[in-house]
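User: Show me a protein chain along with its predicted structure.
Assistant: Here is one chain, sequence first, then C-alpha cells.
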Amino acid sequence: MNYVELVFVSRMGMYSPEEIGIIDETSKDCRSVERSYGRSVKNQHARKKQPFVLGRYVSATGILMLDGIVAWTTVKGSMTKELFLEFLEQVVVRVSFMRLEHF
C-alpha cells in the first residue's frame, strides 16, 4: 500500500461498519430512447421513424448502509448543490443519529 492508502485505512479504522454509509446519485431522462448510430446501404443515412416523447428529468439520491438503503430523496430536474446539502442536513444526519442511538 502507498502512503495515501495507509492514511485512508487508518482513518476509516476508527469507525465501526454501522457508522459507514455510501451516498450515490442517479438520474433518469424520460424522453424516448433512440439510437445514435445505425446501419444502412453504402452512402445512405440510416433512418428510423419514431415518435419523440418529451419527458421529465428525475434525480434520485440515497444512502446505503450495512442493512440496506436507509434514506433517499428524489427531485424533478437535476440535484443541485443546495438540494444535496438540504438532503444531507435534513435526512442523512437525522437518520444517522437515530441509527447510532440503537447501537
